[in-house]
Protein 1
Amino acid sequence: MTLEAIAVTKEFPGGVRAVENVTVRLRPGQIVGLVGESGSGKTTLARMLALFHAPTRGEIRLNGEPVRKAREYHRHVQLIFQDPFSSLNSLRTVGYTVGRALRIHRGLRGRKEVEAAAIELLQQVNLSADFLTKLPHELSGGQRQRVVIARALAVGSSVLLADEPISMLDVSIRLDILNLLADLRDRQGLAILYITHDIASARYLCDEISVMYGGQIIESGPADEVIRNPRHPYTQLLIDCAPDPSRTIQDLEVEYGEPPSLTNAPPGCRFQPRCPHATSICAQQAPPRAHLGNGQWADCWLYA
Ligand SMILES: Nc1ncnc2c1ncn2[C@@H]1O[C@H](COP(=O)(O)OP(=O)(O)OP(=O)(O)O)[C@@H](O)[C@H]1O
Ligand SMILES: [Mg+2]
């Protein structure tokens, strides 16, 4: 299934424009990374893609069709949260949780049949059959995230929206979860949105990277191109900060001032007040989109 957001804007009460005129496309067998600092609108975009927020403007399309029925839709598209504990029922065993999805969405009936299918799904996320009888509090964070992913597979989803799926996990098991997502892409052709602050993990996992700033995607392209040859000054700063763990995206605020107001967005480029390359036009007019070859583009006056 191909999932698209076409020119979506989300305005919250009070005039907060958390996402403005964003287009993204998730294709089968592809992982798109959505990178950006806190408050840039990543979760809001994911929630629109998951139909938890209605776009103020624009449209969500599944296989080219505007989406209307939420019930049918959530069979295909599942959101995976940062905290897997919050999305599991703490009183239910792993076997019950995965089995229930198989009964409802795959129409499986007999106890034996459901159990066999549940074991197979657990194997796909590298958990043994022993986990069937376990409760969420008996699992590690990484194991819980695997169960959440197994449940999405049980539902039969072909699109996963993973909102910082590893950021609450121990560093030692983060890579395992990333490898699992890569595996599901490669072997089952899932379309995956991977939301992260961590540009290094996006490079490792993603086919494409889109960079968000102040509610807009300001650069996008093949992951290697965006990392090796970032063209938007914000992406360049993000990557400059990345190799040094003592510097974070938040440090940019100290050096380059506050992130933009989402209520009173200034005219021109949102990054202009923090941009080392800004010229007078940047404050006056929104930057044009520059197509830079190989599918890479950036919204920046530098390339006009
Ligand atoms: N329900 C809401 N009502 C009003 N404002 C909201 C709501 N949800 C989010 N916002 C605002 O929208 C902006 C974008 O928030 P969002 O959660 O999408 O950012 P994010 O990129 O996911 O940040 P983080 O990296 O911290 O998770 C923020 O300024 C936030 O305060
Ligand atoms: Mg978020």
Protein 2
Amino acid sequence: MLENPRFPRSNGYDTEWVLAGDMGPHPLWLLEELADELDLQSGMRVLDLGSGKGATSAFLAKEYGVRVWAADLWIDPTTAAEHIAVQGVEGVTTLKAEAHALPFAHGFFDAVVCVDAWEYFGTADNYLAYITKFLVPGGQLGVATPALRREVRELGFIPEHIKKLVGWEALAWHTADWWRFQWEITELVEVTAARFQESGWADWLAWSHAVSTYRGERDGALDMLEADQGEYLTFAILAARTVGA
Ligand SMILES: C[S@@+](CC[C@H](N)C(=O)[O-])C[C@H]1O[C@@H](n2cnc3c(N)ncnc32)[C@H](O)[C@@H]1O
């Protein structure tokens, strides 16, 4: 049901396990595409920020041999650890953490990865400066976040079918160009990727159908996705490196 030739690594994961961790569009597809924009090397320390039930954390540890700190606010760390343990991976530490009050030393991580969570806390002007403090100089930041193909500010309205499901929260769904400017202007990072996921809408729709089948009830995002037909909805794939010696 979720086999996809564009995501060979994700295809190696049991569909039921991935669907059981559902909190939004296919996290492994998003991460697999995002990781192509990063240079993740075995042994690196990676913060998976807003890791939810931890599918992405397990994937990072298993596929790239990195050590992962899976930090999340809503999901209990024991629940996440149990979900991750199914994959039999070592090297993932789960913890409850709020994205603005992270319990780590500055310069601790080689990379911060964030899949479908940045939109909840990362849009404030001062957040990039906060999060990059936890990276080594030259450390990597990778974000996959819901995006609209046009800025709400430019449209002058939130498209009705999107407003119906997410309301004002769609204000956080910026274009890739918005993110590129927002990050580059700080001179804190060098932006290495800021693009739309071309298949973002279609992937989200496929996931939403799979979730509906798995749960035996229509997924909440389906109406919005079907009404959209790819006009506005996709994901932004963002990658950057901190500047500094
Ligand atoms: C849509 S879920 C995605 C979870 C996971 N990354 C995935 O793709 O399956 C968003 C996650 O962001 C986390 N989150 C939201 N606000 C947060 C905050 N202020 N600090 C830390 N995590 C937060 C929630 O706990 C939730 O698990």
